[in-house]
Amino acid sequence: MHEILTLSLSNKANHLATHFFNSQESYLDYTKGASHSITNPNVFLSSNLNRITNTLDFNPRAILWDFKNAFGSLNQYQYFESFNDDNNNNNNNNSYNWDGEIIKIQQSRIEKNDYQKYLDGELESTKLQEIKLKKNNLLGLDNTLYWSDYSRVIYDRNSFNNLNDWEYHPIHYPNGKLKFHNNSNENRNKVPFNDFDQGVLEYDKVKLNYNEDYIENNIRYFIEKCDNLSGLNLIIDIDSGWPGLLNQFLEFIKDDYLNKKNLFTYGLFNNNVEKNKVSAGLISRIKSLVTILDSSTMFFPIDSLPKISKNYYLNNSNYNNKSSWHNAAIQFLNYENLNILFCDKKLNISMSHIENSLNIGSNRNIVGDINSIIVDNSNNSNSNYTIDYSSSFFELELGNKRFQDKFNKFKNKNRQNKTFNKIYVSRTVLKNKNNEKNINEEEEKENSKRIDDIIEKDQNKLISNGTNSNNLSKLHSNIGFLDNDNDSFPMDDLKLVKENDNLISSYSINDFNTRTYLNKLNFIVQNTGNRFFKMDDKEEKIDQLGTFAQEYEFGYNSDDDYDDFDSDYY
Fold it and tell me: What domains does the chain contain, in order, with CATH numbers?
């Protein structure tokens, strides 16, 4: 047993986590029992004996943080014993004598959508008959604004946490808004939760709003429910204040509870961060990246809007890039392809296995090339469609001539990007709910050969460019993508994969692009005024970025390429 705990911070992160745990729940075999499920449910889910029904209930091993009001219609205790919700957030046993006027601010409760009513058995019988055949019709763009709108699982009562001083609205302030801030139209997004330092400051408020030991008790509660914790999946919106909060969390708990554990951080990044000048958003990303790299054993940058092949049939679907339900589904395609390895009974792959395959004992932890290939097997089309999740993270061009001249020098080294290590994860075609193959044996062999040919072609290209063949790994899971009855997934809207498609995801650590990006960030920090950094903090960031960059040298020493950095005030 190697349990994995998920720590998800931010609204975007919780959308991705929702898709993942919905999928984990749908792999459960409710007919024969959980032990007959095609996955090992205990890796990502915690089982509890229901003494009333004498059955096992499963809850995600997850801690979710979000803004106030971001949980939608979901109540922290609604699936447990009766609880007075009005006293939930402020039950701190403090009393005050106040003779002045008391103004009570009461917000209207967000109503459940029909899908949640369906799951809770609250739909009228006539409406239930109408949607019995197509449950997915209950979900659409208009009623999936909150991740709880399409959540199928029942979380542990200790899973939910919120920032009491920050409010959320999916349309008016999706990046959060300070509570009691001027609510006029022009000021709604004046103070969003988008800066690393905001998260650092919020940590002290969290301890004040809850109690001094709350964070430690919260994570210890979930760790003690594990027999052999393998590590943490950390999902976070990197271009926000959440990494600052996460950094304070990890500093507080890492040594005592996570020592020698795998920490895989999936950083959801925003391509709207201004990259043509030294902006507050860019500086915040630098601070976030440095702290994440310092604390994580693996870092996976995931684009909030991945690049999709122009001829991919997703482009002809009802895909809406403003929908978190849709965008998280595309991220889930790749996220689950890696994490399915950890709960596939036949493979029994651990997080350590993946980490060691990618860094081979080095300190390299940036997975700089993340892709998914959809192999279209219909009518012998031999078409492959690619979704690129990570490359735009490393795009950085500043308009300032001084910076650009230096950046151009980096680019003029005539260096190809080389790959240290790469893992390929492939999955079979979709199957039906009973895990029965929907293709014959001959077709399956043809599909498997097509997968092997695609991977072999890419491997040969890498080997010819200097990659050691021993550093290329290939893993295959027989669990088909959405090989279940997951009616919360927007399959009809997105047409992500068709019934006869295969899926290949790849994860690699590269040298030049990653090293160049880190050196660019280092140059920016060196030449940025102290209004963005305290002096001690600035020097520390320079040292850390330099150390990180040195790890990404491929077979030669190129320190002289960058020894002419200057540190003049900018």
Answer: 3-81+112-367 (3.40.50.1440)
